[in-house]
Amino acid sequence: MTDTDPCPCGSGLPLADCCGPYHRGEPAPTPEALMRSRYSAFALGLTDYLLATWAPETRPASLPPDDATRWVGLEILDHEHAGDTGRVHFRATFREGRRWGVLEEVSRFRREAGRWRYVDGAPSVTRLKPGRNDPCPCGSGRKGKACCVRG
Ligand SMILES: [Zn+2]
Ligand SMILES: [Zn+2]
């Protein structure tokens, strides 16, 4: 993945014009921007960034590498912020081998010293059973069998 590749968050922008600068230390201006950059960090395996943008009281001591999960799509359903707190409701599609799922969560965010951090959220995971002739769950617009749902 290079800076000119499309950002994993699905914005349609190159990584360098989207989440890339946040991964390099620029503060994300809104909870939504932080959420997108954290999703991209999950997709790219940037565990240091994930830990750095986690509120200290809920931050895990470490994040084990998760090579089995591939994050294939992000949909922001709703977002709002007022003062130094915010919320983002999102849906993230992932696959683990041939198993697909959707994680949906309303995440809470807090800003301290000019930086937004992820606080917590209650995730719910739904399994997907994409058909070979259904639109691919990755959001490519192609049929599953012509994209990620093979075999
Ligand atoms: Zn992005
Ligand atoms: Zn696909």
TrEMBL record:
<dbReference type="Pfam" id="PF02810">
    <property type="entry name" value="SEC-C"/>
</dbReference>
<dbReference type="Pfam" id="PF17775">
    <property type="entry name" value="YchJ_M-like"/>
</dbReference>
<feature type="domain" description="YchJ-like middle NTF2-like">
    <location>
        <begin position="30"/>
        <end position="121"/>
    </location>
</feature>
<dbReference type="InterPro" id="IPR023006">
    <property type="entry name" value="YchJ-like"/>
</dbReference>
<protein>
    <recommendedName>
        <fullName>UPF0225 protein FHR97_003827</fullName>
    </recommendedName>
</protein>
<comment type="similarity">
    <text>Belongs to the UPF0225 family.</text>
</comment>
<dbReference type="InterPro" id="IPR048469">
    <property type="entry name" value="YchJ-like_M"/>
</dbReference>
<dbReference type="InterPro" id="IPR032710">
    <property type="entry name" value="NTF2-like_dom_sf"/>
</dbReference>
<dbReference type="InterPro" id="IPR004027">
    <property type="entry name" value="SEC_C_motif"/>
</dbReference>
